[in-house]
Design brief:
Elements (H helix, E strand, L loop, with lengths): L2 H28 L16 E11 L5 E13 L4 E5 L2 E6 L2 E7 L2 E4 L6 E11 L8 E11 L4 E12 L3 E11 L4 E11 L6 H6 L45 E4 L2
Antiparallel strand pairs: 1-2, 2-3, 2-4, 3-6, 4-5, 5-7, 6-7, 7-8, 8-9, 9-10, 10-11, 11-12
Length: 251
């Protein structure tokens, strides 16, 4: 048989083989994947832990934070973790700890994000002459390694003895020690009673007392400039019902 005849016969055979392989690949591509019998394809927990606690330390061995819950459930299909009554506690050397708790919680698969949901309360213990501070909201997102806490929900911040701040949306940056309130900020501030104020019989001021009116305690309604500068936590906070931002120093 001549070489030319072999080429004529071989080309159709190669073409048929290529078409067969292509048909096989297309068939496998459109076939649904087989259901795994280990349960990983369903949203079922692969393990449940009661009285769950996990901690993280810094390079010096000092405790950075602790995450605890009454119950933890891990789901293998999306590698997420659900928590019942979670408690997230952040520590700092030489300072009071801060604890956040809620009714439900979620941890991302990479562990970089913790979400607290429903009746969320954040409590910073009193220390160094500063009163206890609490934050109430219905949702909180925590990124422990970035030391960042955010929410777009309404928040109520109470600073002892008698400061109350209302806002919608908050950003807490631990590295910068600031709390940024995003929208609809209102504040009520009462100056702590001192010997001088007792003598004058007046310990209450407006949230913004720049006009010098100290006739009584009331909720301030003065507008602030956008991107207000940080102020110390023991100073009055200007209030606004507009969508300007207020940033406060947080110790």
């Amino acid at each position: 048989m001549h070489v030319g005849a072999r080429s004529i016969i071989g080309f159709p055979l190669a073409l048929l083989l290529l078409l067969a392989l292509l048909s096989f690949w297309i068939d496998k591509s459109v076939q649904p994947s087989a259901t795994k019998i280990d349960g990983s394809s369903r949203h079922d927990p692969d393990y449940i832990v009661s009285n769950f606690v996990t901690t993280q330390t810094d390079i010096n061995g000092d405790l950075r934070y602790k995450l605890a819950a009454e119950e933890m459930r891990h789901f293998p299909d999306d590698d997420t973790t659900q928590l019942q009554k979670p408690r997230y506690t952040q520590f700092a050397v030489g300072k009071a700890y801060t604890q956040a708790e809620g009714l439900r919680g979620y941890v991302s698969g990479d562990g970089e994000e913790v979400e607290l949901v429903d009746n969320v309360t954040v409590t910073r213990q009193a220390f160094a002459g500063k009163g206890e501070m609490t934050i109430e909201t219905d949702y909180l997102k925590i990124r422990p390694n970035e030391e960042l806490v955010t929410t777009e929900s309404p928040v109520i911040i109470r600073q002892a003895p008698k400061t109350v701040i209302y806002a919608t949306g908050m950003i807490y940056e631990k590295k910068n020690r600031t709390v940024t309130l995003l929208h609809k900020v209102r504040a009520h501030y009462e100056r702590p009673i001192t010997a001088t104020s007792k003598a004058s019989g007046n310990g209450k001021i407006k949230a913004d007392d720049s006009a010098g009116d100290k006739s009584g305690s009331r909720t301030g309604a003065n507008k602030v400039k956008p991107e207000a500068k940080s102020v110390a936590t023991d100073q009055p906070v200007k209030s606004s019902s507009t969508d300007t931002r207020i940033r406060r120093r947080y110790e």
